[in-house]
Write a structure and sequence with these properties.
318 residues, alpha/beta, six-stranded mixed sheet, Nucleotidyltransferase, domain 5, ATPase_NBD, 2 domains
Length: 318
C-alpha cells in the first residue's frame, strides 16, 4: 500500500485527503479534513493574497504536514485554484507551501491549475461512486471563487467543461455585501450569474446530462439542512438526492437570514455562514437553467470531489 495525500486550496477552504492505495488502485481513506482559511479574502478587489490569509494558510498547512508525516505519506500534490490563480503575489504563497510540503516530499509545492483541469479532477472524483447507467453526468463544483461545470461519463469520456468566475465568496465580496443581502443586491447577483451561465450553455452540452451532481460546501450544507441533521454527517450527505422544489424552500430561507442566524444551525460551518447566501443564489439560477434545457429535477450530492481526483491522478502517475 502507498500513502498518498491531496490538498486543495480553494478561495474559502484548505482541505486535505490522505489515502492508502494498493497496486491495483483500490483506496482506503485515512483522513479527510477541511478548514476555512479564506485565502481569497479581498483577492477579487486587490488581485493580491492578503498577508493575513497567507499566515492562516501557513498555520493550517503546518498541521496538515504534521499529520502527513505521522501517517507516513510518500507523495503529496497540492493544487491552488481560483483565488491563487488570480493573485499577483502568488509566489509568496508558493514559497510558503514549498517550505512546508518539502518536509513530506522534497520539492513539493502548491501548483496553480487551470479551470479546465480543476473541472476534470472534480469530475473524476465526484462520479466514482455513481452507476455508469445514470450517465451522462453533469458535475457542478461550486467553490468560493469559481464554479466548474463538466459533462461526461464514468469511463472518462468528457463532452465539455467550463470554469466560471462565480463563487460564493466572490459574489459576497463583489455584490451581496449586506447581511442579509438586500433584494437589489440579489437581483444584481442573479444578472451576473445568468451571464456566466450563458457561457456554460454555449460551451458545455448540459442538456445531455441525465444526472446532475453537486459538489463542495454549499451543496453539502444544503443536503445537511434538507435532511434536518443535528450534526454535519458526511456519510448521510454523500449520495443524497435533493429535489429542486424542496431545495428552493431552503435556499429562500437562507437568503433571508443573516449570518448569525445561519451560524446558529449546528450543520453550518462558521466560515460558511456569511457567504452561503450568495452560494444559494447560484444554486437557484443553476436549477432554473437545468429546468429550461434538461429533464432531471434533482441534484445528487457528492462528498467526493477534486481531492479524490487528485489521489487518482497521483496513483496514475506512479
Amino acid at each position: 500500500m502507498t500513502k498518498l495525500a491531496a490538498i486543495d486550496c480553494g478561495t474559502n477552504s484548505l482541505r486535505l485527503l490522505i489515502s492508502d492505495v494498493d497496486p491495483v488502485g483500490r483506496r482506503r481513506e485515512i483522513t479527510r479534513e477541511m478548514r476555512i482559511v479564506r485565502v481569497g479574502q479581498g483577492v477579487d478587489a486587490t488581485h493580491e493574497i492578503n498577508p493575513e490569509a497567507i499566515e492562516r494558510a501557513r498555520e493550517v498547512l503546518t498541521d496538515y504536514v504534521a499529520r502527513m508525516r505521522f501517517e507516513g505519506v510518500e507523495r503529496v500534490r497540492m493544487v491552488a485554484t481560483s483565488a491563487v490563480r488570480d493573485a499577483k503575489n502568488r509566489e509568496d504563497f508558493f514559497a510558503m507551501t514549498e517550505e512546508l510540503l518539502g518536509q513530506v516530499e522534497p520539492g513539493a509545492r502548491a501548483e496553480v491549475i487551470s479551470g479546465e483541469e480543476e473541472a476534470q479532477l472534480s469530475f473524476d472524483g465526484a462520479v466514482q461512486f455513481l452507476k455508469p447507467e445514470r450517465g451522462p453526468f453533469c458535475v457542478i463544483d461550486l467553490g468560493g471563487g469559481s464554479t466548474e461545470f463538466v459533462v461526461g461519463n464514468t469511463d472518462g469520456e468528457i463532452f465539455g467543461s467550463h470554469s466560471t468566475q462565480m463563487g460564493c465568496v466572490r459574489l459576497s465580496e463583489r455584490i451581496m455585501r449586506a447581511d442579509p443581502p438586500t433584494d437589489a443586491e440579489t437581483e444584481i447577483a442573479r444578472d451576473y450569474i445568468r451571464e456566466r451561465l450563458s457561457e456554460v450553455r454555449a460551451l458545455v452540452p448540459v442538456e445531455k446530462a441525465k444526472t446532475f451532481v453537486g459538489c463542495a460546501g454549499t451543496f453539502t450544507t444544503l443536503s445537511a439542512l434538507a435532511q434536518g441533521l443535528e450534526r454535519y454527517d458526511p456519510a448521510a450527505i454523500h449520495g443524497s438526492e435533493l429535489n429542486f422544489d424542496a431545495l428552493r424552500v431552503i435556499t429562500r430561507q437562507l437568503r433571508r437570514e443573516d449570518s448569525a442566524t445561519r451560524a446558529h444551525n449546528p450543520v453550518m460551518h462558521q466560515g460558511r455562514a456569511d457567504v452561503i447566501g450568495a452560494g444559494v443564489v447560484i444554486v437557484e439560477e443553476v436549477m432554473a437553467m437545468i429546468e429550461e434545457i434538461a429533464e432531471p429535477r434533482s441534484f445528487v450530492i457528492s462528498e467526493m470531489d477534486i481531492l479524490d481526483g487528485i489521489i487518482g491522478d497521483l496513483r496514475a502517475r506512479s
